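ok posting inputs for the 3-methyl-2-oxobutanoic acid job
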Amino acid sequence: MTDQLIVFDTTLRDGEQSPGAAMSKDEKLRIARALERMRVDVIEAGFASASVGDFESVRAVAAAVKDSTVCTLARASENDVRRAGEAIKPAARGRIHTFIATSPIHMEKKLQMSPDRVVEAAVAAVTLARQFTDDVEFSAEDAVRSDIDFLCRIFEAVIKAGATTLNVPDTVGYSIPAQWGGRMRTLIERVPASDRVIWSTHCHNDLGMAVANSLAAVAAGARQVECTINGLGERAGNAALEEIVMAVRTRKDLFDCETRIDATQIVPTSRLVSQITGYPVQPNKAVVGANAFAHESGIHQDGVLKHRETYEIMRAEDVGWSTNRLSLGKLSGRSAFRAKLQELGIPVHSEEVLNTAFVRFKALADKKREIFDEDLQALMSDESVTPETEYYRLLFAKVLSQTGETPNAQLTLAVGGAEHQAAAEGSGPVDAIFRAIESIVASGADLMLYSVNAITTGTDAQGEVTVRLARDGRIVNGQGADTDIIVASAKAYLNALNKLHGSVERMNPQTETV
Ligand code: KIV
Ligand code: ZN
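and the output
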């Protein structure tokens, strides 16, 4: 019999620890619903003690999701575990994931705790967590640099205290596959009663080996993988869910386990996460990159036309790249529009939302003959913006750009309800419109990144712009889409400014001590 490989998605927790990727409650709910549709087994919805906002997001996801287990992270402290227990209360199936660092460097320098006290804290946290749920995961942070005897000791102790999943993280992305598989095998062999728990792996990508290391752990007996959509996560990111799932599925001959994932949801979910977090997907990214199934060389194209499997090991449509992605056109009516949104899993909470979205859809259809699924997703991501989150709004823009002349932008912005006008010159049209915005807002933010991607093919495609701004140590990403890339740029810049305006203060579980 083939084992089940539990897919534990931490996009909403570890993924959110990427610079500028902080998400609002509504954004988390949209992603959680997409993960549930994809049949992810466990959704780590956040770190309930990080802030009131995080607590509320975890609670909202716990209340909304029915088919996946909803989990929250908690440091090994009484306050964190109680908060976690409270946050997952509404869940049909709730998990508390408690952790403490176990490597000498973390225990000594970060926690300033002796190994004995670390074991005590872990046991106390797991024991307390069991009062809230019988699904308790324990992680030994920085397991990769921890002494193997100490790991065996702490894992044995937390099994006795009631932990049901034991997670072995490569927190700093230091391992290589042979070593990581070996570590997992040793732990499973040496820890008493190891067959009573699920062994889990959690890998970071600092050396580009997060997926390879995770798969080596699975081959060695791990039956849970912790991963994120698009490999989002701190520094170089976490192991990418889509790559792990497709590797296990495509190389069934090598793995004696399978996931429950509905792979056709992979590409839509990848796009949603990219839009919400403002992290674009690189075109050559495995499985979800725009070029993942594109064949450029004539020899390859010829081979694929003669027999697909000459150069393709997976089918694009199996991971959600639809062969016919044409969604709707200018003549489509409201009911076709509503049905398409439903099919794409985009929630429409009221008739009013549907009506305004439909007006915007018609305006887009006037500019663009064919509307694809991706266009609708971009359109609806703008629709989730509310007056509370949209302090700055673009009302009008006019940009003149001509060879031999300095580009000039004029615009009108709504700032907290009041209209402001400005004009500015720039070295290019984007520079001019950003300067015009800044002449009104005077944000004092630094522009760290500006990128443009075409959402679909064709010269009438919408451009999707990502802007990253930094101010006083805070980093935010903004995104905007439009058939006019200057307008898309202005929308992205304002989206980032709106995020800076709404100050979300939260702490990072791994840099704060218990
Ligand atoms: O990377 C890590 O160690 C973590 C733990 C909290 C599981 O994210
Ligand atoms: Zn991590």
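notes: The first strand starts at residue 3 and ends at 4. The mean pLDDT is 92.
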